[in-house]
Amino acid sequence: MYGSLGILDGLDLKAFTSSADGLDGAPVKGASALNVPCVAPNEEFKSVNVQLFGKEDVAPGELPTMKGFLQDYVGAIRKSGVAKDNPDALRALAGEVLESYTPEQLPVINGLAEHYAVCDMWFSSVPSQTNPNRAFTFCGTSLGLTDNGWLEKDPRAKLIEEKVGFGPGDDQFDTKTLWNALHDAGHDDWKIFWQASTLPEKISFALTGGKTWVGHLVESAVNLTEHLDADHQRYLIELSSGELSSCYTYRLFRGLHAIPEVERRFARMDEFHEQARAGTLPRFSLLEPSWTVPQESTDVSRLQSLATALGNDYHPPGNLSAGEAFLQSVYMSLIANRAAWEKTLLIVTFDEGVGSFDHVPPPAAVPPWGSGRPGFETQHGFARPSRSSWGLTTARRCTRRRTS
Predict the structure, then answer these.
(1) What is the pTM of this model?
(2) What is the 3-state secondary structure (H, E, C) of the chain?
(3) What is the pLDDT of residues 27-42, one digit of tens each?
(4) What is the mean pLDDT of residues 242-254?
């Protein structure tokens, strides 16, 4: 994405040609659409191993080859069923995982990269999904969580996954967070600004009598009620209600709930924009995007229109123009107040690599307590080049990691 800057790690396309199921592919500059790869790539630990090493089980000390993306993505396409018994469709879709966006296609995030610092050696903490990586970011540990869903405390989550093939990923980290540390140190000038429920709010609309609200959701809602009893439907409503109890960060980090009146520390994005333009933002703010939920998140095709959502989190197969619009709105609100902007550090980063091609092999990691599961707590995940906007006016390269 940042090759046009001329200051980041280069790429020899031929060196990354890979093969899978009789298909060959090399990285491509320029994406064929703004929602590719259009089938959600795999993100689980073993799939990331395939992407990095070409195999699920990795011996200690092995170095990533970065040639397994096509192999793993072909598996994701086959699992989705979109190219069933259609080798031409499989061939057409497979190469999308090797496509990269140009600065012209994503002018906002690339524009920030051109004018501010880029930390191109910023790697995700573990080679896996969102929840364990966010836990490392805000707790310093994933409590052993490898993939989303392993720390779900509510038994209804597992039954929902069994019945409708839809895993809520409602993990709960009962440990202290960065915000707890701030509170304990007497620093309570912070807020978490959020946009959308953990699950799409249309689920709540449909299950609370809003089936007539959107006609095409009727069949999905009926199918869902056929699969789940009233108690499990109430759980889905809680996850998709639009109330604070449905907020991803509020649910994921249960350690936050020990902070007195923590509910006052959460606000919607409208309030962020108002405070940014007025120059009254707290000293530390976390901005939570709206989440993309791909159709592959459920095994029941009749429920896909109800369970899916296209967010603004730059997550495939969501349309990246939504992410561009979100980032632009944040930046424009921040620079609207010049005096406040000159004292503001904006960090734009991602929690994991979403299974799309990257050429930078992640380094080994030091386990939090001196020992850990080989290949998980001893291996970083993908590079997540992060933008740091704090008043620079020319592109800079920063090789620091986030803990430097």
Answers:
(1) 0.91
(2) CCHHHCCCCCCCHHHHCEEECCEEECCEECCCCCCCCCCCCCCCHHHHHHHHHCCCCCCCCCCCCCCCHHHHHHHHHHHHCCCCCCHHHHHHHHHHHHEECCCCCCHHHHHHHHHCEEECCCECCCCCCHHHHHHHHHHCCCCCCCCCCCCECCHHHHHHHHHHCCCCCCECCCCCCHHHHHHHCCCCCEEEEECCECCCHHHHHHHCCCCCCCHHHHHHHHHHHHHCCHHHHHHHHHHHCCCHHHEHHHHHCHHHHHCCCHHHHEEEHHHHHHHHHHCCCCCEEEECCCCCECHHHCCCHHHHHHHCECCCCCCCCCCHHHHHHHHHHHHHHHHCCHHHHCCCCEEECCCCCCCCCCCCCCCECCCCCCCCCCCCCCECCCECCEEEECCCCCCEEECCCCCC
(3) 998 999 999 999 999 9
(4) 97
Lowest mean pLDDT among 42-51, 158-167, 230-239, 299-308: 299-308
Mean pLDDT over residues 178-202, rounded?
Answer: 97
Residue 54 is which amino acid?
Answer: G
